[in-house]
Amino acid sequence: MTESKGKILTVNLIQTDIVWEDVEANLQNIEFLIDRHPQKSDLYILPETFSTGFTMQTEKFAVPESGSVVQWMIEQARIMDAMFMGSVIIEEDGKYFNRLYCISKEGIEGFYDKRHLFRMGREHDFYTPGEERKVITFRGFRILPLICYDIRFPVFSRNRNDYDILLYVANWPAPRQHVWTVLLQARAIENQAYVLGVNRVGLDGEGVDHLGETSVINLIGKKTAGLANKPGLLYYEIPLNEIVNFRKKFPAWKDADDFRIYTE
Fold first, then answer.
1. Structural domains in the chain?
2. Which residues, at least 6 apart from 252, have a Cβ–Cβ distance to it below 8 Å?
3. Active-site positions?
4. What is this structure's pTM?
5. Tens digit of each residue's pLDDT (9 = 90 or more) over 115-156
């Protein structure tokens, strides 16, 4: 690991009321939230399918990587001198992916295709599952980006001392809000990592309500910052030395079971 002393990652978690299947309105709303927020950061994180909502109209709303939504992310990253992360409906070789992009001012640093597709919403009928778990390194911090339903599968997110921050972007519905809160805390405790959960608010086009509760969970599973049920930005500072020192003092990760299916 790189030298941790003094390293701090500033993050802005962006909680929006996503306008159903209206790309232009959603990008404008995000720009408005960013512009009126006084604290700039290293990392901006957007909810799952932030430009459209969690729609199954993949043929209508999927875009290529060269399309306007990804280019908007690249432009925002350049303007803010920061990394932007958020998931977009992507078409590639005739397949559709719920793809989380990690974009800096230099361009696309990497992406993650949602592995676990939410069959109760028929996501598996319209999207292709991803196959790889990817860690992105940015400004000295190692980040594992995952999407919504992935949070229910702890083997896939198991920390093998290869990341510092675990990130979930979501369209998590109000009826299961308690589950969201508990699983964020559980993932933080078992992985000895900061967990950032970014959810949306408001009704979607299917009549499903979302309560937000975008949260920062620390290494011992305590919620240290959060947003209520309204659009906004949540600013937070994560010190790398706190993570490194905690794992040295309490190295439970050394005794973890070896789940080989995702390590080879």
1. 8-254 (3.60.110.10)
2. 192
3. 48, 114, 148
4. 0.95
5. 999 999 999 999 999 999 999 999 999 999 999 999 999 999
